[in-house]
Structures are given as C-alpha cells and as structure tokens.
Design brief:
Elements (H helix, E strand, L loop, with lengths): L8 E3 L8 H11 L2 E3 L16 E3 L5 E3 L3 E5 L26 H4 L12
C-alpha cells in the first residue's frame, strides 16, 4: 500500500474502474475519504465498479477531503448494452455458402 507523505494537500487518485473495496483502499492510501450518494451502505459494498468520480484524478485537494464516487451511470450516460439493434438495409444476399463456393468438379483434374 502506498502512503502519501503527511502534506496538507494530496492529489486525487484515479478510482474509476476499480471495485468498491479497491477504491476505498486506494483512497485511504492517498489520504482522502470516499462518499457514494447512490450506495447508502457504501462501507458494505464490495464488487460494484466505480463509474464516475468527483473531483477528477490529479486535482490537488486538502488531506482528508471527500471524493464522491458513483457506481451507477446517470441519466443518458453509458449504461452498457451493445447499442441499437436495427435491421441492415439492404439485406445480405440469400444462398449462404452455396453463393461463395464454385461448383465441385473433378478433384484430381490438376494432377492428371
């Protein structure tokens, strides 16, 4: 674990992408505290992933200041999924593999 020197200001660590347990550990080692408005029992949260944080990484803040993290995307943000499923226009030609292959001929024609 990395311990920051006892200075009045610390840099905010990058917490996005970390599990809750790892985010708490990293915040403690950098001298900041965490708050999670979308997780009332944040101290019990283990495997949820941080998707946003404020202030952003690298900003200098007073030692012991609170960094806010979120585990759910806000309205209109990310949210996962594979995008919109729409039919392809024009449709691919029918026929499958038969359209791709030549008609079979004499297999040994080249060596005769």
């Amino acid at each position: 674990m990395r311990i920051t020197p006892n200075t009045p200001e610390v840099r905010v660590p990058k917490l996005v992408g970390l599990m809750a347990l790892d985010a708490r550990e990293r915040a403690r080692s950098h001298g900041v505290q965490l708050a999670a408005p979308d997780r009332p029992e944040f101290h019990l949260t283990v495997v949820d992933y941080v998707v946003r944080q404020y202030p952003p990484p690298g900003v200098a803040i007073p030692r012991g200041a609170i960094v806010t993290v979120w585990f759910d995307f806000g309205e209109g943000e990310g949210g996962g999924g594979a995008g919109v499923r729409e039919p392809r226009v024009p449709s691919p030609p029918s026929g499958g593999l038969e359209r791709e292959l030549d008609r079979p001929g004499d297999t040994f024609e080249a060596i005769r």
